[in-house]
Amino acid sequence: MDFSTLALEMREDGIAILTLNRPEVVNAINMQMIEEFNAVMDYLSRAYDTRVLIITGADRPDGRPAFSAGLDLKEATIVDVKNIPEGSPDWLSFPDHSKRFFQFQKELSNTIRKMRTIQQPIIAAVRGAAVGWGFACTCAADFRVAGRSARFINAFIRIGAGGADCGVSYFLPREIGLSRATDIIMTGREVGADEMYQAGFIAKLVDDEQVMDEALGIAASLLEKSPLGLRLTKEAIVFNVDATSLEAALALEDRNQNICTQTKDFREGVYAFFEKRPAKYGKR
Questions:
Q1: 116 and 208 belong to one structural domain
Q2: Buried b vs exposed e over 201-213: b needs ≥16 C-beta within 10 Å?
Q3: Beta carbons within 10 angstroms of residue 88's beta carbon
Q4: What is the extent of the structural domain holding 269?
Q5: For the chain, is the Cβ count within 10 Å smaller at the N or the C terminus?
Q6: Is 265 exposed, middle or buried (0-12, 13-18, 19+ CB in 10 A)?
Q7: Are residues 185 and 266 in the same domain?
């Protein structure tokens, strides 16, 4: 798969590394990146040999680290259809600006929705700024590894829009608590890596040069788990964070365990446990 705004590395060990790759604009997301990002998520939803996804950002041209500066406002605020970049999606030619932006917002939020519905656990490997959509992307990940240069900004509120966008108001209160999340979402202040680590948002805080190694280490540990077991565990977490009751949560867990225990992987896992050896699972 060839992209102009992303770099996708599909490793033979079952780990995929997706790099946000617009370094000249601090990896800001534009229409092209939205389309390509959603295409990658659609592809991974069917890529059973790929079991873990790492998302990171390309360094700036001067070598400074970056995750994503968020939304590329130069494209998002296009009013005159005559200025639409070549190769843009057809809905950008809608004559009504409000309808164009309505569709734009839907496509943008789909990036977050798709992150939560693909089978692979997602590790955000963050160095430098994660702003706006970039911050939302880290919120939607299953794990967050950050370098000491990482900083997080809920920028939506700082440009005249609402502070609740791209799922931030859904994820962040669940991840760090309502009071802390309200502060970050409403003020739009810059939050450093140390503060976010103390809040429990970041799983691992390391020096910048260790971020990818740490992310790969987590990914490798996940590859030691049963492929189906890992998929159904992510599914259970996604659904049960909003479970209507304990009974509903238990019903989903019971269903998943009934499925997992019928597989060859379960038998292999049990034998490996008693034989005191690593389990040998396939990629799928």
A1: yes
A2: bbbbbbebeebbe
A3: 15
A4: 227-274
A5: N
A6: buried
A7: no
